[in-house]
Design brief:
Number of strands: 8
CATH superfamily of the largest domain: Phosphohistidine domain
Order of helices and strands: EEEHHHHHHEHEHEEEH
CATH class of the largest domain: Alpha Beta
Number of domains: 2
Helix content: 40-55%
Structural class: alpha/beta
Shape: elongated
CATH architecture of the largest domain: 3-Layer(bba) Sandwich
Strand content: 15-25%
């Protein structure tokens, strides 16, 4: 038995097998565009418009604070300043994929340098960029896994669009290695009553299939719990 610690959200306790969320898609290669700037810009506009619409739809389905968060994400996706940054890279010969990746990464670095509340918005930018890149590549965006049984979800961080619509009959608890008490993951987990611990040190060592106890009140993740510990946690 060993323990990992982070910042607990709420007072609940849950236990179950871990399922790790898939890692983000790899960054695109910086290869010159063969389609031309006009075509690349049109691809970005279409992808961003679809992603913004999807975020707004998820917000309407979730309601409450989640809707406000997701509508804000949709606005960020279509932010003119970001679009200008993307266009600048496309005009220099980049593909739509690289331009989106690099422009969002630059904006993320700016927020991280500011720190605090704005620093914790950096993870939101990652999610938007991943969704736009997935749309450009014609693949499904990374999201919450569906193993077919109740589980404890472990992720680097969870996007607001995913947190807002978690199936609470399946997701017993949430553990993230990044984020803090003011991250959107924490805010939405608190509102939805999800047992959660964020910013868990060494959380990357948790593996799919192992059983843990998640005690939000103490901010402790117990690995390989004994039968007595499991019984007390029910």
């Amino acid at each position: 038995m060993s323990e990992l610690r982070g910042v607990g959200i709420g007072l609940g306790v849950a236990q179950g097998p871990i399922v790790r969320m898939a890692e983000a898609m790899p960054a695109p290669e910086n290869t010159p565009s063969t389609a031309g700037a006009d075509a690349e810009r049109a691809r970005v506009r279409d992808a961003v418009s679809i992603v913004a619409s999807e975020l707004n739809e998820r917000g309407e389905a979730a309601g409450g604070s989640a809707q406000e968060v997701l509508e804000a994400q949709a606005m960020i996706a279509e932010d003119p300043t970001l679009q200008d940054e993307v266009d600048t890279r496309i005009d220099a010969g980049a593909t739509a994929e690289w331009a989106v990746h690099d422009a969002f990464a630059g904006f993320r670095a700016t927020l991280e340098a500011v720190g605090g509340y704005l620093g914790e918005r950096a993870a939101d930018l990652d999610d938007i960029a991943q969704r736009v890149l997935a749309r450009l590549r014609g693949v499904e965006a990374p999201g919450v896994p569906n193993p077919g049984h109740p589980f404890v979800l472990v992720a680097r961080d969870l996007a607001p669009a995913d947190t807002a619509l978690l199936d609470l009959d399946q997701v017993l608890a949430l553990i993230t290695t990044d984020g803090g008490p003011t991250s959107h993951t924490a805010i939405l987990a608190r509102e939805k009553g999800i047992v959660a611990i964020v910013g868990v040190a060494d959380g990357e060592t948790l593996t799919t299939g192992e059983t843990v106890i998640v005690d939000a009140a103490s901010g402790v993740v117990t690995r390989e719990p004994t039968d007595d510990e499991k019984a007390r946690a029910t």
